């Protein structure tokens, strides 16, 4: 019965909504319960839309909410991850992670701009729109599924992929150069192998392996070849850390 | 068996810990699972304590965590409560609520300073210690019981008792004067009746009724007579709002 109802609901949804829903599921990693929050997160003020009660229907208030959720999830992560860091250190690291530049990168990598509904000229959006809708998207997740889903999403999409504490501390600029340097010193053969290159235009995806002396030492996936190489190198670095640090 | 074990655990705890535990339960409104977080929240850096891993054991890092949790819970509350407020409004209101002055008041009213462990002269603490340990206390709740308990505590102790949006907007300075003014205009008899006056010194508690024309219109409880009167007047104001606003 439930399946049957679901089918009806599914079929009655317009095709466009269906595509939006499916794309959302892929990015979120779970099914949204109430799609209206996400629609709001991608509605630009230039549409002049209002909700049922006559209040503006756009993503600006959701940015405020998402920013707050990001702040507390990142705070808890840093608190647990860096037990040696004092209050000043934690505050500084958090602002690096939630910097405008970083949020823009996150929004751009998820290609959230594909969903935007606007009457303004997209050329006039400016860089910050990526970060703004990323924050609004987080706010929508909170309203749709609560704090725990919001937390999981931020862990999967922000922390695991982007928060690299030694790098943020400025101790490591690039894992790729660290690993290459070590290979050269140790006279080891190495190369990066692109094993996956999928998607089109805005949604490209790359998979890269780092092979050292004929063995796969690290793999990485990202939206650019450069980023995928850096991820593979980072994993290789941690696998080889003891050997590298001895040098 | 569980009861029996609990009894043993309870009895084996030193008397002092037992008192701390009981007082905590009263303030928290639930039983803490791991008391160590709360002990940390009340340990001043002057004790020079270290944890098992050699890191400083004091409340300073917990302040960072508590501040972030307060920020997100208050953000979500404002988002839901004031659907007409734009991003700038929400940001401004949040900073009023989590202002240093306000946090100090919250910490002082809960008398958290009674738990402090310090080697410094308490006279040198300054006003901000109340707000600081209040934030650390919120951080401890998060670590002990997670976001949902933290959220409930902030709703009970911060939002319900202190967050008065019209007042924060500067639209209402005092509900007491609003209600008194109305009673005088309407030639109604009114008086505040203190029906509860308990606790000693730092932990005084007052209960006040506002009686208008022989009827109890509002009740309030707080740590001072003045605050309890204001609470009672606020409730009376909302009960009478339609009548008052007509004038």
From TrEMBL, chains A, B:
Gene3D superfamilies: 3.30.160.20, Ribonuclease III domain. Residues 21-146 form the RNase III domain. GO terms for molecular function: ribonuclease III activity. Keywords: Cytoplasm, Endonuclease, Hydrolase, Magnesium, Metal-binding, mRNA processing, Nuclease, RNA-binding, rRNA processing, rRNA-binding, tRNA processing. It is found in: Cytoplasm. Its EC number is 3.1.26.3. Pfam families: dsrm, Ribonucleas_3_3. It comes from the Bacteria. Mg(2+) binds at residues 63, 132, 135. It catalyses: Endonucleolytic cleavage to 5'-phosphomonoester. The active site is at 67, 135. CDD domains: RIBOc (cd00593). Its cofactor is Mg(2+). Transmembrane segments: none annotated. Belongs to the ribonuclease III family. NCBIfam families: RNaseIII. HAMAP family: RNase_III (MF_00104). This is Ribonuclease 3.
């Amino acid at each position: 019965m439930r399946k049957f109802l679901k089918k009806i609901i599914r079929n009655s949804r317009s095709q466009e909504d269906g595509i939006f829903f499916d794309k959302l599921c892929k990015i979120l990693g779970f099914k949204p319960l109430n799609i209206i929050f996400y629609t709001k997160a991608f509605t630009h003020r230039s549409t002049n839309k209002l909700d049922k009660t006559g209040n503006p229907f756009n993503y600006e208030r959701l940015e405020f909410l998402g920013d707050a959720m990001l702040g507390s999830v990142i705070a808890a992560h840093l608190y647990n991850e860096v037990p040696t860091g004092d209050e000043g250190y934690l505050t500084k690291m958090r602002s690096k992670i939630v910097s405008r530049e970083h949020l823009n990168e996150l929004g751009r990598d998820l290609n959230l701009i594909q969903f935007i509904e606007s009457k303004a000229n997209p050329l006039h959006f400016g860089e910050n729109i990526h970060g703004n809708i990323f924050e609004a998207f987080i706010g929508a997740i909170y309203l749709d599924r609560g704090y725990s889903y919001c937390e999981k999403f931020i862990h999967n999409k922000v922390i695991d992929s982007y928060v690299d504490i030694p790098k943020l501390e400025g101790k490591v600029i690039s894992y790729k150069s660290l690993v290459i340097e070590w290979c050269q010193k140790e006279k080891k053969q190495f190369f990066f192998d692109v094993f996956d290159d999928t998607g089109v235009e805005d949604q490209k995806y790359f998979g890269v392996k780092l092979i050292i002396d004929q063995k796969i030492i690290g793999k990485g996936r990202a939206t650019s070849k450069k980023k995928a190489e850096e991820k593979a190198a980072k994993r290789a670095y941690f696998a080889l850390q003891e050997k590298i640090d001895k040098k």
